[in-house]
Amino acid sequence: MELDPHVIGVTASYKLLIGCVVPRPIAWVSTVAADGVPNLAPFSFFMGVCNDPPTIAFSSGRRVNGRKDTVRNLEHTGDFVVNVVDDLHAEAMNATSGEYPPEVDEFALAGLAVAPGVLVRAPRLLTAPISMECRVAQIVPVGRGPHSVVFGEIVYFHVRDDVYDAKTGRIDVHRLQPVGRLAGHQYAHIHDIFEMKRPDENYKG
Q1: What are the angstrom distances between the C-alpha of 99 and each of 13, 53, 62, 94, 195?
Q2: What's the rounded Cα separation, in Å, for the pair 141 and 147?
Q3: What DSSP letter does each residue of 65-131 carry, written as one string?
Q4: 170: phi then psi, degrees, rounded to nearest 5
Q5: Among 78, 81, 83, 84, which residue's Cα sits nearest to residue 138?
Q6: Which of 9, 54, 124, 131 is the most exposed place for a label (fewest CB within 10 A)?
Q7: Residue 190's closest CA among 199, 181, 201, 198?
Q8: pLDDT at 154 over 80
Q9: When comparing pLDDT for 32 and 200, which is higher?
């Protein structure tokens, strides 16, 4: 099968893209609006970018009437928090994925506890296994929409004690139990984990 995105169109290309790039981590992004209303929304176009300084990026599409609340909020405050979605929060994450008006507090909608950030104005999810406080480094418009690709420098980590191994400095993925995004209505539990030693004696990952 050979498929030309210019021929099959935008919708078919989107379905192919999200079906091919799997599983995707989910950035459950919390922000605060100018009027103080918290916002919480998931984004699966999400990745780590570099480690010095620790930087992440996520991409947000547009609403019919303009940018999503998340992007408008972080442009106002200059910061946001990425909360990691685990098995226990999968249903709540899905509940916050709807297209709600700006006055809706998705934390309250999903029955989630809020905690203040340490170095940022944006709130964080109190019960998240990991929350990363970020300052906006750059916002880049991409595509015909356009999407907003948000780059954020991580300035503070909140990590649940049981998922962090202080001896190795690594996250215990078995305990973290992150949720991956697939396509359509599909998600993945990250439980079946295997190891392969990198062909590099100095590998630090």
Answers
A1: 22, 33, 11, 11, 39
A2: 6
A3: TEE-HHHHHHHHHSEEEEEEPBGGGHHHHHHTTS---TT--HHHHTT--EE--SSSSS-EETT-SEE
A4: -105, 155
A5: 78
A6: 9
A7: 181
A8: yes
A9: 32
Q: Which two tokens stand for residue 10?
A: 């935008």
Alpha-carbon distance of 187 to 180, in angstroms, equals: 6
Residue with tokens 């699966």: 44
Measured at the alpha carbon of residue 59, what is the angle toward residues 54 and 65, in degrees to the nearest 5? 140
Q: How many CB atoms lie within 10 A of CB 147?
A: 18
Neighbours of 135 (CB within 10 A): 18
Contact status, residue 29 vs residue 21, Cβ threshold 8 Å: no
Block residue for tokens 């990991």: 130
What whole-number distance in Å separates Cα of residue 139 and Cα of residue 150? 5
Q: Is the pLDDT of residue 143 over 90?
A: yes
Give domain 25-189's CATH architecture: Roll (2.30)
pLDDT 10s digits, 120-131: 999 999 999 999
Q: Around Cβ 155, how many Cβ atoms within 10 Å?
A: 16
